[in-house]
Design a protein that fits this description.
The protein is 64% helix and 9% strand. The protein has 3 helices and 2 strands; from the N terminus they run αββαα. A hairpin with a 2-residue loop joins strand 1 and strand 2. The longest helix has 23 residues.
């Protein structure tokens, strides 16, 4: 059996920690709020707007079960907001 050196065990950990920095935050009246909160809220608002559009055109039930579609849309829109505005 080959014996591992401690360096080979620490190297993967260091690779994952090498890009750690402070979390992006917004200062609102002296309190710092993480950006991901705003991305989730924007994703939720965009999903509600998309639902209204789908109801308006009568395509609400055409995409699958709503219990899967709407949470997926929230995640999709939140990730899009994150990429567009904060990366």
């Amino acid at each position: 059996m080959r014996k591992r050196s401690p360096t080979t065990a620490i190297l993967p950990i260091l690779l994952f920690l090498s890009n750690c920095s402070h979390a992006p935050a917004v200062d609102i009246l002296g309190s710092f709020f993480p950006i991901w909160i705003f991305c989730i809220l924007a994703g939720l608002a965009a999903t509600l707007l998309a639902r209204q559009v789908m109801l308006r055109f009568g395509t609400d039930g055409d995409y699958g079960p709503p219990v899967l579609i709407y949470p997926s849309l929230v995640v999709l829109f939140a990730c899009v907001f994150w990429i567009v505005f904060f990366r």
